[in-house]
Amino acid sequence: MKKEYLNSDLDSFLAKWLEGELTDQEFKNLVNEDDYNAFLKIRHGLHVRNLLDRPTDATFSKIQDKIQSKKDKVRPLYSNWAIGIAASIALLFGLFMFLDTGEIIIETGFGESKTIALLDGSEVILNSKTKIIYDEDNWIKERKLYLDGEAYFRVTKGEGFVVITNNGTVSVLGTQFNVNSTTDFFDVVCFEGKVGVKTLQSDHVLYPTDTFRKINGNTSEVSKTLDKMPAWVNGESTFKSVPLRYVIKALEEQYQIEFDDKSINDSDIFTGSFPHDSLNVALKTVFETLNIKYTEKEKRNIKLRYKE
Questions:
Q1: Which percentage of the chain shows pLDDT scores above 90?
Q2: Residue whose C-alpha is closest to residue 250's, from 223, 284, 273, 269
Q3: Distance of alpha carbon 10 from alpha carbon 55, whole angstroms
Q4: Comparing C-alpha atoms, which of 236, 202, 237 is closest to residue 222?
Q5: Side-chain half-sphere of 300: how many Cα atoms within 13 Å?
Q6: pTM to 2 decimals?
Q7: Closest Cα partner for 268 from 301, 285, 246?
Q8: Rounded to 5 degrees, what are φ and ψ at 206?
Q9: Distance CA 2, CA 151 (A)
């Protein structure tokens, strides 16, 4: 049964939620499910728009530092703007007016990949549980998109192409490259052309076969790869000296399963691969090499422990 409330109540709930005074669960309990799901899209749209609009040159980190130092003293103007815009949309025009903008959101599910043709002829192949967002109306003028997850890019020549992630930005002119960016994992591989990789801590230029990786905030040196393209595009995930926790996450996203890994050390280093078309083979390939036993506790929930 849908919850009933006055517009003024909805306005108040929304403002408190966007300010962080209400948790997601508290807000969800106050509004009906349809409104909650729509508000999530609004909040995410505002967040991504801020990322897409922010400058990508070296001065950004300096600006960010200055803003951070004054954060406790000055109420962010963006926050007030976001509340006003979101509340006005909800009350006057309905939640789905956001669909009239040029913002395109494309996502993949568990074990799913998609090939996307962009307006300039560039191509993006998305790995499982990956999201890209870009402005279709402004694409030809400014080729810039937001990525959360892993994607392989074949970029046509033009005036620049920027991939923005929460871990850093990747800038190219005409090339083929792979970007994997999740919460605390950032990996970029250049297969053709030249790629610029910029984070708050470092700035690198990658040439064909160069790879850059940042794990849990720690940046490694640029290394080499023998691969001609990412293996996952052809149905296989590969890893080179990667903590096991990231392999487990990749298995979960590929096969829509969950692991109970409390009994093992998920920082163990793994080098190897697993296929995308057989869960049994994937589990055997990853865990038997590390002397780890895997047992299904309940449907699609697997317990891990070391063999005795």
A1: 55
A2: 273
A3: 34
A4: 202
A5: 9
A6: 0.68
A7: 246
A8: -105, 140
A9: 39
Tokens of 103: 């913002």
Q: Which domains does the chain have, with CATH numbers?
A: 7-100 (no CATH), 103-224 (2.60.120.1440), 235-306 (3.55.50.30)
User: What does the pLDDT look like over 21-33, one tens digit per residue?
Assistant: 777 777 777 777 7
CB 276 within 8 Å of CB 233 = no
The residue to which tokens 């080499």 are assigned: 224
Q: Do 151 and 124 contact (CB within 8 A), yes or no?
A: yes
Order across the sheet with 301-306: list the strands. Answer: 258-260, 301-306, 292-298
Q: What is the pLDDT of residue 9?
A: 64
| Token code pair at residue 206 | 């990658």
What gap in Å lies between CA 199 and CA 162, rounded to an integer?
13
What are the DSSP calls for 149-190, one per residue?
EEEEEEPPSSS-EEEE-SS-EEEESS-EEEEEEETTEEEEEE
Sign of the CA dihedral running 243, 129, 188, 41:
negative
What local confidence, expressed as pLDDT, does residue 50 receive? 60
**Helical (H) or strand (E) element with 39:** helix 33-53
Look up residue 81 and give its amino acid.
Answer: W
Q: Which residue carries 């939640």 as its tokens?
A: 95
Closest CA to 127 of 180, 75, 165, 85: 180
